[in-house]
Amino acid sequence: DTGVSQDPRHKITKRGQNVTFRCDPISEHNRLYWYRQTLGQGPEFLTYFQNEAQLEKSRLLSDRFSAERPKGSFSTLEIQRTEQGDSAMYLCASSFPGRLNEQYFGPGTRLTVT
Amino acid sequence: GESVGLHLPTLSVQEGDNSIINCAYSNSASDYFIWYKQESGKGPQFIIDIRSNMDKRQGQRVTVLLNKTVKHLSLQIAATQPGDSAVYFCAELDFSGAGSYQLTFGKGTKLSVIP
Fold first, then answer.
1. CA distance A107 to chain B (A)
2. Is the dihedral of CA A74, B106, B47, B43 positive or negative?
């Protein structure tokens, strides 16, 4: 399978705990994006990387959220001190250089904060 | 699987009929408009896109129409099949200024195909 992969697929955590998600983009894709999707809504942009550089962050990305892409390949998204409002699907996407209009999404990580 | 389609506009069509899904967009400066299909429990899947300087683009069984005058986008699916059942989102991509390269998604439409 050469698509975008995400791990874990599901995560249940208690409020106040930290969680970390991983995304492996399609190889050769230099851009990587994180989105958040709540039930019944379209995905909302969180942040994106070009290679290892984080170039943009949404206002949705509070200081409890941090994303990294240390070697320009896989990326991690960490949420510290989780709150119930963080419950959502976290989606990762990647795109090929010069094909910014085609973002390919992974299956997502469903986070439930209890 | 989980339901992505709660509280979404719903379109029900008979198998074999054509489907038309509509979307109103807000940013006249968007460079691309893209349609995504999202099945329950999965991430959005790229279907087709159209540049802002075009008004029609055809793919396999799908056609996207863009009307910039009224800021309207539509996705036509020919000979709808049960496998087309999903939530469909339109998205905009604006390469200019702050916020470039991020997709801005519209409200989804749940398509249900009746066998």
1. 4
2. positive
